[in-house]
Amino acid sequence: MGFHDRRNDLIPFSFRLSHKKKKFKPKSIRENFNSIYKRSRYSIISDLFFIEFQILSSAFVCKTIWAVL
């Protein structure tokens, strides 16, 4: 019994919870993904625009450096 308790403590708590709720896993994963997507859709778009702006600005800096050289 004591060895079983120690081995159970080694397993992460979240893994134990997901192992118990195995039946509901696919639906819950889909629902979680949908909620995350709805929440972070605009933040993802803004991140993409920011990355694109960074790439364009770095390319512009490189072009100006080459023009100066």
Outline of the structure:
By secondary structure, this protein is mainly α.
Description:
- By secondary structure, the chain is mainly α.
- The protein has one domain.
- 88% of the residues lie in helices and 0% in strands.
- It contains 3 helices and no strands.
- The longest helix is centred in the C-terminal third of the chain and has 44 residues.
- It is rod-shaped, with a radius of gyration of 24 Å.
- The mean pLDDT is 63.
Tell me the structural class.
mainly alpha
In DSSP terms (H or I, runs of 4 or more residues), the helix count works out at 3
Chain oligomer state: single chain
* Largest sheet, strands/sense/barrel: none
- What Rg is obtained from the alpha carbons, in whole angstroms? 24 Å
Termini Cα gap: 75 Å
Percent of residues in helices: over 70%
Strand proportion: under 5%
Number of discrete domains: 1
- pLDDT below 50 for ≥5 consecutive residues: which ranges? none
What is the typical, i.e. mean, pLDDT?
A: 63
Give helix and strand order, one letter per element, not per position.
HHH
Give the overall shape, derived from the CA principal axes: rod-shaped
Number of DSSP strand runs: 0
